[in-house]
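During the no-cost extension, the postdoctoral fellow (Dr. R.K.) reprocessed legacy sequence entries with the updated structure-token encoder. One reprocessed record is reproduced below for audit purposes.
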Amino acid sequence: MGYRVGVDVGGSFTDFAVFDETDGRISTLKVFSRPDAPGEEILAGLDVLTSRDGIDPSAIAYFTHGTTVGVNTVIQRNGHDLALFTTRNFEDVLQIARLKIPQIHNLYSVRPEPLIPRDRVFGIDERMAATGEVLVAPDPDSVEAAVHAARRAGCAGIVLSFLHSYRNPENEQAVKAMIDTIAPELPVFCSAEIWPIIREYERTITAVISGYVQPRVAHYLNRFEEVLRAQGVACPLMITKTNGGVMGIDQAKAECVQMILSGTASGVIGASYLAQSSGFSRILSLDIGGTSADMAVILDGRAQYGVGELIGDFQIHVPSVSVSSVGQGGGSIAWIHALGMLQVGPDSAGSTPGPACYGRGGTRATLTDAVAACNLIGHMPLGYGAVTVDQVAARAAIAPLADALGISIEATSGNIIDISVSGMYAEVSGLTSRFGIDPREFYLFAFGGAGAMLACFLARQLNMQGVVVPPTPGVVSALGGLIADLKNDFIRTIYCDVTQAGVASLAAPLAELEKAATDWLRNRQGFADKATLHLSADMRYLGQSYEIETVLQPEWIVAGDIDAVTAAFHREHMRLFGHADPDALVQMVNLRLAICGATPKPQLPSLAKASAPALPCARVNAWFDASQWPTDLYHRDDLRAGHYFEGPAIIAQDDTTTVVPPGFDVTVDSFGNLVITGRTA
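Re-encoded structure tokens follow.
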């Protein structure tokens, strides 16, 4: 028995969640992130856990970590200088992409420059048939010429993405072997190894992103490992994954694309666990940190997944927890457009210098400063005492914007909040359309450092059932990494009609996927307990140009039950689009298999029942919707199960502040969640 530790490094704060396996107690902590010295925040947090809670690092038996190093590398475009080797005459794959402009309603919108410029893309004389037959073996002379050209261009790595390598990786493997002989110092990234999917651009861009971030991610993880070992943490180190699971650190170094959204996914997994444990089946999660607001759909305790998630300007096509992000976080900077319009984000003050009200050198107004200027925060220190909010500094930062707009500081602050909420509203609209859900049937599950501050404003605009704020909302992402399961995804492109013969042909590839999945979990991860397999397929009607992922049962494949397979697809098509065509021919493009090994989960403690009404510890004057309201201030530690009170109210606690506007009521449930609902007339 020992301690299980989850860590999430965000733009402003690094969060810790610690599960004591002896007594089941969970303790939490926040420290400032150190983008100037990555790894130092981990040391600082461990030092506090040792001095405050008496946790000996050598007693830590499990350590998980989520990081944004990969996604930040793509956004900032400071990754590896790569070359791309393609099949001859397919050198324009990154430039052509999908011939889509980023903003379809903006005719001036332009596609981003590829991560690998055209002059570093080289064609190789080789050809693979769509059936997997080698038509032309790789020509050694063309490979040697391409390698020398890549060296002259200063490339530090090579991505291989050949036509139809998802069917047969033989040509990619052959060229990799040649490069290892010609230029052994150059790392090689094969698309068929990274994610072997049909469609050349999708497979290529996924491989490019993985290779682009690999050196920086590997360096960060090596440093992270050294820091922990020096502190006496001896357990295997785990990294949270884009798919909401965890994997060993060695796999993370090699398969960087699998953990590029690790921090974001951890938050959704944590929210899923807490929502399901508390009895909430239909949830929209809202995670607001220092840089962005991230939203996801959670049904019956299960996060929704997808492919094609946006990483900076580009999509990756590995299975990912489906999260929509908008650049309105607590540190997002408010500014005035050249046309005189107030804007918020996407630039963020981060942790250094941070919002002006943090007193760390920031002078530009942020969303957090707007909340402080409305007197909604600052009534107790934030971040476990790391920050004492300076409302005077917040107002001083907002004053130049107010003067330029010709309105009061309070009105400007309210507008900053409204603009931020409107950006989240637009992003949620796209998310709900994508999954075919009605937000009026959902609760908004708020977490992150700023989620509880703004959740009621967003829920009001979406006419949702209400808002749920868990007991420690500021560290849900760290908790998500702590309780995430060992999980890995496997894919095989099938491309067959769902007929009797087609389904019969799936038994062999399904068996191969199951063998690969079991080998990964048992032999590579050392997991000996019971595993769970999740089978699905990318399916479509004949003639459609897109697929939808449909959950299947393995026994349907083994038995050749085409009726069960097609019925599952028709149901999913009906759910998403409101119609289905049972008489149409169905095609299967990809077969997918996910394997999970469950990790220990802490049991949520019940909160003691209230024996008296909830009493505020103070009353303050706060601004809501450009009007000043007398507002009750509560301390979260004073609340008990069954407590009820009306808004406007502010609930302060160590890791965040919950803001309850007028017209909302608050009830504390048996798990200590704040359940906030709009008051009916």
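The chain has 18 helices and 35 strands. The chain has a mean pLDDT of 91. The remaining legacy entries will be reprocessed before the final report is submitted.
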